[in-house]
Amino acid sequence: MMSDDVLLQPHRVIDLPLLHQGKVRDIFTLRSAPDKLLFVVSDRISAYDVVMGDGIPGKGRVLNEMAAFWLAKTRDIVGNHMISINPDDYPSECAPYHDYLIGRSMLVKKGLPLPIECIVRGNLTGSYWSAYQEVAILEQKTESPYCKKQYKLLHGFELPADMQESEKFVEPLFTPSTKAGFGEHDENISFNKMVEIMQQWLLQNHFHEIDATALCIQVKFVSQEIFVVAREYAKVCGITIADTKLEYVLSPDGTLLLADEVLTPDSSRFWSTNQVVLGQAPPSFDKDYLRRWLSQQDWNKTYPPPNLPREVIEITSQKYHEALARLVLDDFL
């Protein structure tokens, strides 16, 4: 039985070169396979950009297994970076950590992450709902076939002026944003701004033969296709996917690859369909319960975070495991 601390800090167990430590994932390079990376998913959890001192039991396995499921399910839409989630397939230098890696790791193709957050929204919620409430109602002629005379213009999208919180968009919206640095916040951007950022990034990384506009169009198209496929599948499971954030990398030869993490409770908003009510935000299968508890505490949302009560840890863990149980087929695991 592994200790909670060990599951929170994989790099303390795995003696491989640590390339990057994110809020949840530790990423290692492999001496014998320089074209591959080892992703290890911890039980860490963050809220308000602060990593909690307490972990959520089993969370790493849930995220890893769910991401692997969706990567396999969407590979006909776009290629992805997953090679295997079976430690038996990993390079020999991973063998000493075999038991630790079971269920919470992924061997992937190495790639360069795109500088854009690729967000697809199916319902009006979260920060997009807040932004929608703040923009003015316009009454001039609209190009959108879904708007009446009055409409709102939000990040380039013409939306009906009378939408309610949690209402479904007629078509999923692709709403890119910047990738914020540590302590900063992502910024929603237009498609044209996305092309501009991508052009600079491609030149900086010597992908001179790739057209930025064509790449952005491809990213937009496959992101929306992935969302639609996932949403239709989830609907059968009684789950509404309100929005999701997708990550992509470019392989050394310039091939676009979908990358972890994909359609997990940390990167997406999952609702029980029978709990979706217009005019309010339904509870979601993620850290929603944790956030609500934290919002009631005397905490300024900076480090150090408060210690989490056992009840908060257990209920949050149950939410993650329920999402996995409802969405991922038994014969996949």
What does this structure look like?
- By secondary structure, this protein is of the alpha+beta class.
- Helices cover 29% and strands 23% of the residues.
- The protein contains eight helices and 17 strands.
- It has helices spanning 4-8, 59-73, 98-101, 126-134, 191-204, 212-236, 288-295, 310-327, and strands spanning 18-21, 25-29, 36-41, 46-47, 50-51, 82-84, 105-109, 112-113, 116-123, 137-138, 151-154, 157-160, 168-174, 177-178, 239-250, 256-259, 268-272.
- The strands form four sheets. Strands 8, 9, 13, 14, 15, 16 and 17 form a seven-stranded antiparallel β-sheet that branches. Strands 1-2-3-7-6 form a five-stranded antiparallel β-sheet. A three-stranded antiparallel β-sheet has the order 10-11-12, with no helix packed on it.
- A hairpin with a 6-residue loop joins strand 2 (25-29) and strand 3 (36-41).
- The radius of gyration is 20 Å and the shape is globular.
- The two termini are 21 Å apart.
- The model has no long low-confidence stretch (mean pLDDT 93).
Helix vs. strand class? alpha+beta
| Order of secondary-structure elements | HEEEEEHEHEEEHEEEEEHHEEEHH
Globally, the shape reads: globular
Main sheet properties: 7 strands, antiparallel
The level of helicity is: 25-40%
Task: Please state the CA-atom Rg, rounded to the nearest Å.
Answer: 20 Å
Tell me, rounded to a whole number, the average pLDDT.
93
Query: What is the count of DSSP helices, taking H or I runs of 4+ residues?
Result: 8
User: What is the strand content?
Assistant: 15-25%
Q: How far apart are the termini?
A: 21 Å
